[in-house]
């Protein structure tokens, strides 16, 4: 039986690239999506065409009941081995005094509370303390957790700092239970999370002169969940082109 990877927000962008690479590396893949059923269904078709088992499950990771429903669907699919918490939003870019309360709440609820909910649900399904076989978790942070995203989305950077803190503590708490917990911290990557024109504007200022590709982030995620990273936990792998 192949190991099962759950990727939240796996229908587009970095999550979809990770799903495609995971099936190529021999995993079965469950993706979650919130709104875009069509793109999620396409990723599942690609997974199956590549010889893997795939499943797409709708669910808003900001909602506890949706996370519970997602993990029940995972249980029906097979034993979970790896969680990739990838769902994320920034909201409309602005200075801090102009941000809406809704954007602040969405960022905290999706980027941080969703990560909390999914980590909590994954532990009893992975931990040797709960009679399970062990596994790993990867959380998507961002270089902005240290740069701060001034003038664009400081609130987003703050939630990603929260993700960094979650992984710091959780990796130690779970280290003796067969669970590794790591971060992938991308720089600017070519996905739809950015406002139109942002990537073209910032690319010339980046050390590499270009933004990254979702596939380049997927490689880091697949390394961290693999046995090649068996002694790697509580660490951050930046995929940021020297930023
Ligand atoms: P993206 O292309 O905008 O995709 C975002 C994904 O998150 C989509 O699959 C979306 O699902 C899902 N999502 C949004 N709200 C959700 C919710 N409430 N519940 C469940 N899923 C939800 O973004 P991306 O660039 O691939 O970003 C993936 C992760 O990498 C995020 O955590 C982001 O913060 C992080 N990151 C990205 C960059 C970058 O430059 N792209 C840099 C640093 C970090 P639907 O398709 O259903 O909308």
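^ structure tokens above, recovered residues below v
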């Amino acid at each position: 039986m192949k190991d099962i990877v759950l990727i939240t927000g796996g229908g587009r962008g970095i999550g979809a690239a990770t799903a495609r690479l995971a099936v190529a590396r021999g995993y079965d893949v469950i993706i979650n999506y919130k709104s875009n059923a069509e793109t999620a269904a396409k990723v599942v078709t690609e997974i199956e065409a590549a010889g893997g088992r795939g499943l797409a499950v709708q669910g808003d990771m900001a909602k506890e009941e949706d996370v519970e429903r997602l993990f029940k669907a995972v249980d029906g699919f097979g034993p979970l081995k790896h969680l990739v918490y990838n769902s994320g939003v920034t909201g409309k870019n602005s200075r801090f005094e102009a941000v809406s309360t809704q954007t602040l709440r969405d960022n905290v609820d999706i980027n941080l509370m969703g990560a909390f909910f999914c980590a909590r649900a994954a532990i009893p399904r992975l931990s040797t303390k709960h009679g399970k076989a062990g596994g790993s978790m990867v959380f998507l942070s961002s270089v902005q957790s240290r740069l701060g995203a001034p003038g664009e989305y400081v609130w987003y950077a703050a939630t990603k700092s929260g993700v960094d803190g979650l992984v710091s503590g959780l990796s130690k708490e779970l280290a003796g239970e067969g669970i590794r917990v790591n971060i992938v911290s991308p720089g600017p990557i070519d996905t739809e999370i950015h406002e139109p024109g942002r990537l073209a504007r910032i690319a010339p200022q980046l050390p590499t002169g270009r933004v990254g590709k979702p596939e380049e982030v997927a490689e880091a995620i697949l390394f961290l969940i693999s046995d090649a990273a068996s002694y790697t936990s509580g660490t951050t792998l930046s995929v940021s082109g020297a930023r």
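The chain has one domain: 4-239.
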